[in-house]
Amino acid sequence: MPVTIRLALRDWDYMTPLVLGDVSSPRLEVKVDRVGTLVSHVGKDEAHDAAEMSFSRYAQLRADGDNTVVGVPNFIMRGFRHRCIITTKSSQITQLSQLAGKRIGVTGWRDSGNTWTRAALRREGVGVEDATWFAGRLTEAHPIVDRLDGFGRPGRIEATPGERPMMDLLYEGSLDAVFTPFMPDGFFNANSPFRQVLSDFRGAELNYFNDVGYVPGMHLIGIKAAILEEHPWLVAELSKLVDESQRVWTAKRRKYAETSPWTFDEILRVSTDLPANWRDSGFNANRAMIADFAVELHTQGILARTLTPEELFPLCENSDRPQLAATGS
């Protein structure tokens, strides 16, 4: 009988083959719960055995000596961050270096995505000390919560005034730019007053990849350590299931590319511009990215020291990786 675990995930399209049972393992049955908000601490969550989690928050657990969760170096949310820096169409800011001395809003200071975005900005000469930062909700529809998460510094990193939505502040000129992983409603309309800071963000992101050699990872899968004590092979098996689900989904997207007019073109461009292994999972494939993220967490003042990749992923060398059965193609 296979071991059964319950996994909390956001609605990533490439997990569909796994959810539908098109991808399976004789050793592991994965029941997926689709969630809109990430589980805050899977080690303390009675409803789940594993969950999608922030890379940054996972690193904080390791730094704090909390070993109740073990991370799988399978980065289920990856993406470049240059596109996530937005301003108004009337703004004169067109380069990241022009954000020096400006007022920048972020949706959460510790967030992995915003950490990577600040890393991209730092490569252009704009560090944390070179701007004034405000953490707050993106729009009126988003909840008022603590987005500073203990990292506030008066005059440098503060909550948005009166907890006002950042898009309102950006529109009226009280902010010069906003970091956001997800664009606000109306952003994609032709008459939207907002735009990316970089008109050719794709070109900037490709240059970034050519420099660093990876697509940044924001979220990974965390598993309760207690389960792994009994089933240490589960890390590798779950990772392979995720990989196979993505492979099957990608094959179907190439076949059924008419979900939008230019999906076909995007698939071709990715195949041309990036190496075939750009999204490979596993410790060795992602070691450079893991190490760079650890450096950023320390440099940006989120962690007190730079953790090593081995400290972050202590079970990364598990070699028990059986074959899986993919029944959909």
Tell me about this structure.
The protein has 10 helices and 13 strands. The chain is α/β, with parallel strands linked by helices and 329 residues long. It folds into 2 domains: 189 residues, D-Maltodextrin-Binding Protein, domain 2 (3-Layer(aba) Sandwich); 131 residues, D-Maltodextrin-Binding Protein, domain 2 (3-Layer(aba) Sandwich), CATH 3.40.190. Strands 9-8-7-10-6-11 form a 6-stranded mixed β-sheet, with helices on one face. Strands 3-1-4-12-5 form a 5-stranded mixed β-sheet, with helices on both faces. The radius of gyration is 20 Å and the shape is globular. The C terminus is likely disordered.
Note the topology.
Elements: E1 3-9, H1 16-20, E2 23-24, E3 28-34, E4 50-54, H2 55-63, E5 69-78, E6 85-88, E7 103-106, H3 112-123, E8 132-135, E9 157-159, H4 166-172, E10 177-179, E11 194-196, H5 201-212, E12 217-224, H6 225-230, H7 234-255, H8 263-273, H9 283-299, H10 309-312, E13 325-326
Parallel strand pairs: 1-3, 1-4, 7-8, 7-10, 8-9
Antiparallel strand pairs: 2-13, 4-12, 5-12, 6-10, 6-11
In short:
This protein is α/β, with parallel strands linked by helices and 329 residues long. Helix content is 32%, strand content 19%.
Strand content: 15-25%
- CATH level-4 homologous superfamily of the largest domain: Periplasmic binding protein-like II
Q: In the CATH classification, which architecture of the largest domain applies?
A: 3-Layer(aba) Sandwich
Helix content: 25-40%
Please supply descriptive tags for the structure shown above.
D-Maltodextrin-Binding Protein, domain 2; alpha/beta; 2 domains; 6-stranded mixed sheet
